[in-house]
Each structure stands twice: as structure tokens, then as C-alpha cells.
Amino acid sequence: MKNHHRSTRIVATAKECHSPVRRQLLAAAAALPLAGLASVTGPARAQEGAIRIAQSTALTGPLGDLGSAMHQGAKAAFASINARGGVNGRTIELVTRDDAYEVPKALANVEQFLADRDVFALFNCMGTPMIDAMLPKVIDSGIPFFAPFTGAQLSRTKNARNVFNIRASYADEAEKLVQHLSTIGIQRIGIVYQNNSFGKEVFASAKQSMDRLKLPEAATVTVENNASDAGTAAAKLAAGNLEAIVIGLAGKPTLEFVKAFRALKRGVTLYALSVMGTPATVKALGADATGMAISQVVPLPSNAVMPVVRDFQAAWKASGATAEPSHLALEGYINARVFAEALQRAGRNPTRAAFIDASWNLKKWDLGGFEVSASTPDRNASRFVELTLVGRDGRFIK
Known about the structure:
Layout: H1 7-11, H2 20-31, H3 38-41, E1 51-57, H4 64-83, E2 92-98, H5 103-114, E3 119-123, H6 128-141, E4 145-146, E5 163-164, H7 170-183, E6 189-194, H8 197-212, E7 219-223, H9 230-238, E8 244-248, H10 252-264, E9 269-272, H11 279-285, E10 293-296, H12 307-318, H13 327-346, H14 352-360, E11 365-366, E12 371-372, E13 386-390, E14 396-397
Parallel strand pairs: 1-2, 1-3, 3-4, 4-5, 6-7, 6-8, 8-9, 9-10
Antiparallel strand pairs: 10-13, 11-12, 13-14
């Protein structure tokens, strides 16, 4: 995502030259008004016009449906905000580049954004591997890195105030699933998790919750990223006389495992995290998805009882979007609304530093049924997690 900082050019070499003077330059740049960087970058630009923010996300590739849905939700929010005069009289322009869920493309996108002095912040970049690769440059630059799309702890970095996480973490979701199982008296639990950092984090969080609740030790299996051993994992758990299975998988491993397990055994409830619950995945699973319980980090997008959902539905319709509103689209919408609120509080000619301060001052802010409460950089600003079921028609129900 593009950055309004020419100082990010300096940042590119900062690792080679961590001098006190360099640090002072970076601090000064962060405190300068948007597009007003004369003391660091040459002639100042007018402090007016659109506020540009930038996003690298997957619009194509294996998870293109996730990135596209969130992008469309954010666009709907910004279009609604801009139609009402913007924020403090200034519109928000979202510049988006497709990275196809590939780390090299994502890094190239972010480097271009960081080299662009007109970009104020990075917004809603997607994917744990991509964000992991981006973070060193982003943290070094000081640019606001707002609402990265990952539940991984790696983005919740202590002391990195320019990184602002909203969505509940994978740990929060796993804890919610295990608490539910404990509440309804289920003891014989299996855990299948992907053999990567994402899966291991889900497993560790679920195990920690089970230990705290004094549940019996879970039967556990792993699945490789290419899903080559999904059938073997399914067979092992199917033979285990289990009552429920917690699924820490995403993408192809989810599809292959669920299909293989359902072919061997029915009557065991499958519990998965929000990253599994995309419309494309549910559709691909067909009848095998029916009855699955999936944690969600935003409200049901059809629950118009909630003011934030009503606002989202109106913005979605006004945007001309033809796809059915999804949890991911609502998440993108919410992220955009929270960004706009922090920007409003940062003032008419916001500096990055003022915007970052405003973000961390969002305490118990209620966005119509969705609360945002910032605390410290190692924690996400939302703890919202609720369980949904996949109905017979493939729709989510509470």
C-alpha cells in the first residue's frame, strides 16, 4: 500500500544506518500533516483533497473470494462516507492492488505503497504469510497498518503502535469453540489442524482452553498444506469414537478433510473457524457442510436487528454490489467504518501520528452492536466471536 512518506525511501536503508539522526527524521515525518512533508521530502503539497489509503489483497488466486468480498465491503463503506461529504470534508480514496495471495506480489505492492508519499495508511491487507512478510518494513516505516486480515498472533506485535488489529484472533475463536463444547457437555473431542503456523496456533489455543476447562486430552491429527494426507487424518479421527471435531484448516485441506470424514462417519459435529466459512467453501462442500458450526468474528450479515448490519445492508445495496452480503463483506465494511472514525478524531489535517493516537483512543466505541475497544498493540480491538450453523440451504444461521 502506498505511503505518503518519502521518508519510507529512507526507511529502506534504515536497517543499514540506525543512527539517532535517522530516527529523528522518521519521527518527524510521522508527525507531519498528510501531504505536508516539506522538512523531510522537499516542497509541501496542499493539505487538501482526498486522503489516499492503500491495500494489497487477494482479488484472484486461491483465496480471491475472501479478498474480493472484504474489498467490496470496504468500498461500500467508503462510498457511503464520501457521499455524505467524507471525513472532516475530505474524501477517502482506497487504492487496491491484487497480490493473488502470493507473498512476492504482496511485498512488491507494499514497497510501491511505501515509496509513494501520497499514501497515508495501509488498510486491510490480507493473509497471514503476506502480513508476516510485510511487517518488518511496515513497522520500520511507522506508517499506519490498519486492520490487517489475519487472526494470527504474529500481527499483534508488542510496542508496534502503528499496527492496529480489529478482528478477534484465532485464539479467541478457538477458545469460543472449546468453551461451547464444554458448556454443552461434550468430552470426547478431536482436533485436526494444518501443519503450518496457522494450524499450530489454532491447536495450541484450543489445547490451552481444554486444559483450563479440565477437558480430557483431545485426539489430534495434522494435514499438510497440499491436503495429500487429508484422507488418512479423516480415517484416524473417524475411528476414534468422538463427539466433536475442531477443525484448524483453511482452503483445500478443509474441503478434502471434511469430504473424507463425512464419507466415513456422520453424526459427529464439526467445528471450524471463520476462515473456513466462506460462501465458496460452503458451496464446494455442498451437503457435507450442513450442520457444521463455524465461529464468526462479525455479526450475521442478515441480522438487520443490529444497527451496524442495517447500515451495511444499505451501503451494500447503494454500491450496486450484486453478490449476496457475506460475513467477509461486513468485516471489510466494519474495518472501513472504524478507520473513518479514527480519521475523524485525528482532525482536519491529520498526521499519521495523530491518526495512530486516535486509533488507540477508541475505547468501548459501539458501532451499532459491534464494540471496538483498543488496549495494547499485542491485543485486537474486537473480541466479538459468535457461533453460526450452516443450514440445509448453505446459509448461515444463529
